[in-house]
Amino acid sequence: MTEQQKLPLPPFTKASAIEKIRLAEDGWNSRNPAKVALAYSLDTRWRNRGTFVEGRQQAEDFLSQKWAKELEYRLIKELWAYSEDRIAVRYAYEWHDAKGNWFRSYGNENWQFDENGLMTHRHASINDVAIDEKDRLFHWPQGRRPDDHPGLSELGL
After folding, report:
1. How far apart are CA 84 and CA 82, in angstroms?
2. Residue 97's pLDDT band (boundaries 50, 70, 90)?
3. Strand, coil or helix: what is 126?
4. Which of 23, 35, 104, 156 is the most buried (most CB within 10 A)?
5. Tell me: the pLDDT tens digits for 10-63?
6. How far is CA 91 from each of CA 25, 82, 141, 157, rounded to the nearest angstrom?
7. Count of beta carbons in the 10 Å neighbourhood of residue 51
8. Are 49 and 41 in contact (CB under 8 A)?
9. Using an 8 Å Cβ cutoff, are 92 and 107 in contact?
10. What number of CA atoms fall less than 13 Å from residue 67's CA on the CB side?
11. Could you give the residue ranges of the DSSP H alpha helices within 49-117?
């Protein structure tokens, strides 16, 4: 079985790393687990907080559970560093639980890609901070963040 390529491919430049990050952000903001999982290799390995994921199907299942819990999820990612086949990002996302409690989650991820541009490894460290709804900063309609919406640095995050 041949896996589809996900552009841009390694080796990354600063511009292609930023493009890869925005594509990942757009995918996660779609909250479509089946579609998002296609960006990962069949044998992808994740550490997400204390959860360990092995394989694309487990990644899809994890994302389904995540977005069932984290309602009105909105994410912004930003480049931290890159090399030939690795990208480090920092990010923040806002969401609320079923009781209406709002959170801003801050995190860092380290990614490694294969020659097809599929992510083989994802290591995420995340902290959740309770916020008041009035303190939310991510107000675009569900889905892709508009191009003119400020990024993390512009928001002082």
Report:
1. 7
2. very high
3. strand
4. 104
5. 999 999 999 999 999 999 999 999 999 999 999 999 999 999 999 999 999 999
6. 9, 15, 19, 9
7. 12
8. no
9. yes
10. 20
11. 56-69
